[in-house]
Write a structure and sequence with these properties.
The chain has 372 residues and is mostly helical. The chain has 16 helices and 4 strands. It is globular, with a radius of gyration of 26 Å.
Length: 372
């Protein structure tokens, strides 16, 4: 309901800009456009925050309903011919309008945004672009939803003490708590979420279990089940190509990179290839070192280094060469310490202050609220 109201109010704000009888200028066009949609964004920001941080089936169902509405709404604004005419008028006179550097940047950015999103297209191509954008928004949502569900579906329960060999106590305690919260007290639950999978790959002495959890993570969306993403990827690629061609670009990579510093996708490709060979050589040397460490292991001697061995033997090399145990560093990188460090830097660079607020309702007991 809030999204519906937000869209309606946003449309009214855009209509007020378009129907303004005054000559277009920064205040009545660019600034007015910049301020429009505030109610809608106030709704969408917490909505998408919840989808990424604390989603459920009801929220996902809403996302599928809201996504095409938002795509259509966005297209109706970026392809609004009368609105673009006003923005273009301000853009063309920008150098004679005594604008501040920030205002000038704002004018140029919004003009470029509209041009990049099809404002200069003919009516037929605009309609085609609207359809393509709507299709892509659904495909992106379904792709992310599939990955999320694959992430949440994988559960590796351990029950034997030998299966926990090598794992630090804090990792074991977290797995026990996760199992308890999942209704399986007395067991140990490991998932594909980063705080669970990374320490497991890094410290677990059980190679078969490392392979199991690694494979689970890197085959998400590729298991030929209802969450498989291969066909979706193909459809996304087809629609991206169509969008890029409609907007006058050679391919989607050229479209995406054209507004960035590199300007052309070939520049990026050349840069990647320039560092590929030396990077590969370094990786091969690292692999030799890890294989050597693996050969010293009685359990894994004469076995070939595999991707699920990389984290574990990297940790062994750190201990062997530098006497460095990452667990000894963890107290210095606790969430509170890292957060306070970020707040400190933000204060020194930008003069921003953070004050913790108590007794504020939140969507999860771990959430903390700060006034900025």
């Amino acid at each position: 309901a809030a999204v519906n109201v937000g869209i309606r109010v946003h449309i009214e704000e855009i209509e007020a800009i378009v129907n303004n009888p005054e000559e277009p200028n920064f205040e009545n066009t660019i600034l007015a456009y910049d301020k429009s949609g505030e109610l809608l964004y106030k709704t969408l920001e917490p909505f998408y925050c919840l989808i990424s941080a604390e989603t459920n089936d009801e929220l996902q169902e809403l996302a599928y309903e809201v996504s095409p509405m938002l795509s259509e709404h966005s297209s109706s604004i970026t392809l609004n011919e009368d609105l673009f005419k006003r923005i273009k008028t301000v853009y063309e006179s920008r150098n004679e309008s005594n604008l501040t550097p920030n205002q000038l940047r704002c004018v140029e950015k919004y003009y470029d945004d509209f041009a990049r999103n099809g404002a200069n297209l003919n009516d037929e191509d605009k309609e085609e672009l609207k359809k393509t954008n709507a299709t892509l928004s659904k495909l992106y949502l379904q792709f992310d939803d599939n990955v999320l569900k694959e992430n949440n579906t994988f559960k590796m329960y351990l029950t034997k003490e030998e299966e926990l060999a090598g794992l630090p106590q804090n990792v074991i305690d977290a797995a026990a708590l996760a199992a308890k919260n999942d209704g399986n007290e007395g067991k140990y639950l490991f998932t594909l979420h980063k705080p669970s999978i990374i320490p497991f790959l890094q410290f677990s002495e059980n190679r078969d279990l490392r392979e199991k959890i690694y494979t689970g993570y890197f085959t998400r969306g590729n298991n030929n089940d209802k969450y498989d993403n291969k066909e979706l990827i193909l459809e996304i690629m087809k629609n991206r190509i169509k969008k890029a061609e409609l907007l006058g670009f050679e391919n989607f990579a050229e479209y995406r990179i054209s507004k960035n510093m590199a300007k052309h996708y070939k520049t990026v490709k050349d840069f990647i290839m320039d560092i590929w060979t030396p990077s590969l050589n370094v990786a091969k040397e690292e692999a030799k070192e890890l294989q050597g460490m693996m050969d010293l292991s009685s359990a894994h001697k004469d076995l070939k280094l595999e991707p699920w061995d990389w984290w574990y033997y990297s940790e062994q090399v750190r201990k062997h060469k530098y006497n460095l145990d990452e667990n000894e560093l963890k107290p210095y990188f606790s969430l509170d310490n890292v957060r306070d460090g970020v707040f400190y830097v933000s204060n020194k660079l930008y003069g921003i202050n953070f004050t913790k607020l108590e007794n504020i309702p939140t969507y999860h007991p771990d959430v903390e609220v700060f006034e900025i």
